[in-house]
Amino acid sequence: MADWHKILVAVDDSSLSERVLNYVGEVVGGIDKVGICLLHVYPEPPPYYFTEKHTLQEYREEKEAAARQVFDRAGKVLENHAIGAARITTSCQMATGKTFSKTILQVQKDGGFGTVVLGKRGISKAEEFLFGSVSNAVIRESHDFTVWVVS
Amino acid sequence: MTKTLQDIPEHIVSLYKAHPVSSSIRRQPKVYEDTSNFSSIDYGDVIVADNRYFVVTGHTVEGRFGVDDQPKQWVPKVVDLESGVSHILKLVFHEVFSVSVGSFTIPCYRSPEKEARILELTEDHPRFMKGKAVEDEAGNLVRILDIISGRRLDKHIYRHECSHEEYFVSYLPGILKEYIECAKAISFLHQAGFRHGDIRRDHILVEYTTGTFRWIDFDYEFYLPERPFALDLFELGNLLMYLVVRGNYHPKEIVDDPGLGQKVLDTITPEDQSLLSRNRVVNLRKLFPYIPETMNNIFMHFSQGASVWYDTVDEFVEELEQAAASL
After folding, report:
1. Which site among A95, B62, B63, B227 is 20 to 30 Å from B294 CA-CA?
2. Which CATH superfamily is domain B150-325 in?
3. pTM of the model
4. CA of B224 vs chain A CAs: smallest distance (Å)
């Protein structure tokens, strides 16, 4: 089983992410062995994007700039729990040809993370059918690692 | 600069003049090598694409249910002047609009590029319309489609005037056999990373000569990054239910049906209704008790009462094949 001290936390710019980070901080803030990787996943460009004469490079730059802001805010939250920058790494990924959940699972596998932490929004069944639930999809595919879901 | 017949080869002009269109047009026809401004292309004009000359003989119409048919200016009907073969052309129209799916509004896009790629992917697949995508002089992706000589599926299932029970016993097994092959064709698209995007009962044509069901019109694209195939799956389910009961049943249709009525409607609960199209009944065994439970269980995967649903078309097809075999 992968090392649970290697924690992958999926973050975005929502208030839910702040709750997730506070939870992680409360639980593992005092454990020196813990290392945290903040993961921000963004979707591929929408179908009309290139017909409006934009480039993939532009899109990536825009999303990565937004991710840096997410990581900055996340770093400040974790600092409040005595988790300093030395214990934090970041990863920004475009979900290329994959869903968000599959991208997270790939990062978990590639990085050998033993714990994955996600937020869960309260959504209806209909919303889940149409738009999906990343947390449910990750839980379903979790083998040999632990998933924490914060709602 | 708009061109005229003087700008095209003499032998093409002769062919044009011999075509019935030329005697019914009251103006000078225009010749379009650039189809960017498709709204100006009209009956009797000539479109040049793929080094071929196509005369416009009309436009296809938008067959949305309950809405008067509206001509689709970006989809002219044409005849190849040299071969004499009729085609449908689809010109570039990057339309962005919203579609209601139940209580949700989803952005939808017309994607000529997607349709062109699917045409290429499915050129040897018997369950899809056939065609070729080429660029016009301005780089617009023009799709030259072969016409399927056939009837819309929704009209096909009504061609025998009979009771539902007789339809269910005598005609439905054959219809389901073809529908299953169409569903497998959608799985083929999904495995290649494509969605159909506009699965509906008038987007399957039933060939007159062979009875083969074939998909048309796959230029719609949705942006649902986490569940990219959910809408296709949902619409496949809707189409299956439509075929099995030969219609859609909302409270009004149930009450108005002399064989059903208020008594049946009183037995319907929210769990019996569609997850997304909330008013539509999917527990169809309550309306038609002779529908086998195995078939009804498939419908219930699309209900508000469902605790699990199909993730892939393959899961759906596997259960459907078993249920259909028992009919």
Report:
1. B227
2. Transferase(Phosphotransferase) domain 1 (1.10.510.10)
3. 0.91
4. 6
